[in-house]
Amino acid sequence: METAQLYTYFLKAEALTTDSRSIPKNSIFFALKGENFNGNLFAEEAIRKGAIYAVVDEEQYKNHPNIILVDNTLTALQQLANYHRKQIGIPIIALTGSNGKTTTKELIHSVLKTTYKTIATKGNLNNHIGVPLTLLSMTKETELGIVEMGANHLNEITTLCTIAEPDFGYITNFGKAHLEGFGGVEGVIKGKSELYQFLIKHQKTIFINADDPIQNNKTANYPRKFSFSHEHGDVIIKFINAQPFVELSVNNMSIHSQLIGSYNLNNIAAAAMIGCYFNVPMDNIKNAIENYTPTNNRSQIIEQNGRKIILDAYNANPSSMHAALDNFALQKETSKLAILGDMFELGEAAANEHQQIADYAASLVNTDVWLVGHNFSNTISSLKKFPNFKDLEYFLSEYPVKQKLLLIKGSRGMALERTIKFL
User: Fold this and answer.
1) Per the domain annotation, does 218 fall within a domain?
2) DSSP H helical ranges for 68-178
3) In this protein, which residues make up the domain named Mur ligase C-terminal (predicted)?
4) Is 101 known as a binding-site position?
5) Is 419 annotated to bind ligand?
6) Are 340 and 202 within one domain?
7) 103: annotated binding-site residue?
8) pTM for this prediction
């Protein structure tokens, strides 16, 4: 079926879903497939639950007049999203980077929605499925779209750009994330910079942190860019402090955020910069940033039994782990404990990167550090180590934590937010 014809079916539906467990009324269901599931099996069930159409790619499941057969459901979804993107013709801002993507996306959304009808990626639906779903949630009434793009291999950002065709783009940073897939830091830089390459090729606008030498190098001599910097950007950012929340000034306007850690300075600065570019009033920018509070285990502050917990357990890599420890070391509380979980997707670099973090953590003054997970347990360190979460859970049941300030950080697979209920 041609994309234009499939689009007519999409327009008749009130929602689009890929999850047969949750079928909105009058929706269109795309039967996607993976290693351990086949959505084609649930096409008829989706119709019974209220979908008006189901899209399949195996002919044997086209046994209902409202089931639509395509060659490949994922490809059809991506092509439909690109077609829709062309039909609505709204400005799209793309965002990628090693650390801080989702927080930065949420901040940008908070700022822009004060002035524009804005739709942004929900949660972290930032892959080859999430990006199409984000685009298809936009309408002609949407004035600005914000699309987060994640990647752990080369050419993924290029693919996502081909689907979304962004008009603007920003890269948060280039760090030690997904080293296994990218093949090292140089691969990370090359992979994330695919966003720049697309924007430059199509003469679109690039947002940059002008204090980042990599971003400057990758966009050198390109005229269509807008920047923030501490000294020489289009928007001037000044760091004031982070004790514990980040305070900064944007073009001489003071902003008191609810985000901890100096590593969030650039995330806030990016949102302010993009707000300035789109002529959002400075008061709106200030209010949006000051009223934003993190969720989903991202730098959350939790008060519990007279102690303060910095819960940053959504994800971790060597760059973000080092930054979190730097910030933790600066906190004035004298009774401190950091519980660190393994960092995933580091490939052959895993042993060395975990050892470096363990060494750095051991050097911190007035800070106790516990290491959790297989990789951290194999480091050579005098720090307290737990091979798995069960061991940590047992220890906590026998020896209650006495420290007043805690940092809990690890990769998503470690699910260290579970620690909270055992403290």
Assistant:
1) yes
2) 73-88, 101-112, 130-136, 156-164
3) 298-375
4) yes
5) no
6) no
7) yes
8) 0.87
